[in-house]
Amino acid sequence: MQEATVPDIWLADRRVTLTDGAAGAVAAALGWTGSSQLYLPRITGIGEPGSDTLISQDIKGSSDSVRFTFGNADRTMTDLSNDTDLKYAEIDFCAFNVNSGIVIQIWKGVIQNFTSDGTPNFPVVCSDGFFQIMNQYPERQASRQCWKTYNDGVYCLWATKGASAAAVMHAVAQAVKAAYSGAKVEWLLPFDTNNPTVYWNAGYPYPQGGRLNNYVNIPSQFMAPNGDIDRLKLEALSWGATYLNLDLAKAAMAYGTTTMTYAKSATAYLVPWFNGACAWVAQYLAAVNAGMPIICFWAVDHLTLLSWPLPPLPVNSRAAKVF
Fold first, then answer.
1. Calpha distance 93→108 (Å, rounded)
2. Average pLDDT of span 34-45
3. Of 218, 231, 230, nearest to 165 (Cα)?
4. Nearest Cα to Cα of residue 42 among 78, 66, 18, 6
5. How far apart are alpha carbons 17 and 285 in whole angstroms?
6. Could you tell me the CA-to-CA distances from 216 to 136, 150, 204, 261 in Å, in that order?
7. Eight-class DSSP state of 101
8. Most buried one in 27, 90, 132, 291, CB count within 10 A?
């Protein structure tokens, strides 16, 4: 079972106790907790009803498909499915030869779906472990709601693996600097998606930014230099490529030294020029005039693809102080 608190379940087509006669090898291979294991009678069928096929396989790369039918007249299997999540639970299909006393591990896979419809039968359809990667499209729809049960210890490991953005950034920065003494850590901060105020306009009526994004993705511990980040690279690609708002782009350039307290020498700005509508010249000159010490472009392949007339880089058309 996927849940650590639910023990493994041992089922067969009859009640039988198997004993390890191979010095622990069988118990280790099958996952027994002792030298013998009781199997309870619950399996009523293997494979599709009316078919002699137990497992279907092919050489085309398709996932294996196996169907098990469990007795459910007493609603035990229904109660089990209500008590724990059976989807993706592992199934280890073995065969025991009574005459030779040999157990053969035939197949192992995971449960994909099951049916509980009030009948005495509880069919379970399984596939091999490669089922997920063989899909040509995502199984689940994109949603703002996480499908995982919070902190269940199986799918959501928040208690042991979860951490805030600040904790992750700190851990990564310290690990890199411990391994490479001369390393400099740069934080690429997308300020359009993390703009404190939601923005859209008539030309592109799709909201961007908001207080939640800003709060979650810009930790308060990193509003000022703290020994982890050596350079803050700001970018607001959509301001210059889709919304075409130079004022918001200028605000993004200044965010690191106004709202945040990084030295200007420790900042950089990323200018978009990846589509034909990008007002990248205006953004570049605004960054130059704002004294940004490092100005980068996204991305170098677009320089060739869009045939931007470079070099040289543009200069101010009127007298202005260039830092």
1. 6
2. 94
3. 218
4. 78
5. 80
6. 33, 18, 25, 19
7. T
8. 27
Chain-centroid distance of CA 87 in Å reads 19
Looking at the DSSP bridge assignments, the partners of residue 234 are 189, 269
What are 20's two structure tokens?
Answer: 């390890």
Phi-psi region of 24 (alpha: psi -120 to 50; beta: other; left: phi over 0): left
pLDDT above 60 (res 169): yes
**56 strand-pairing partners:** 65
Q: Which amino acid, 160? A: T
Are residues 260 and 254 in contact, defined by beta-carbon separation less than 8 angstroms? no
Distance, CA of 45 to CA of 277 (rounded, Å):
63
The helix-helix angle for 246-255 and 280-289 (nearest 10°) equals 40
Length of the chain: 323
Amino acid letter for position 215:
Y
pLDDT tens string 81-131: 998 889 889 999 999 998 998 999 998 989 989 999 989 999 999 988 776
Whole-Å CA distances, 257 to 5, 160, 263, 290, 291: 51, 36, 6, 11, 11
- Tell me the residue ranges of DSSP E strands in 283-322: 295-298
Tokens of 242: 């889709």
- Residue 165's pLDDT is 81
Which residues, including other chains, have CB under 8 Å from residue 199's CB and lie 6 or more apart? 207, 208, 209, 243, 245, 248
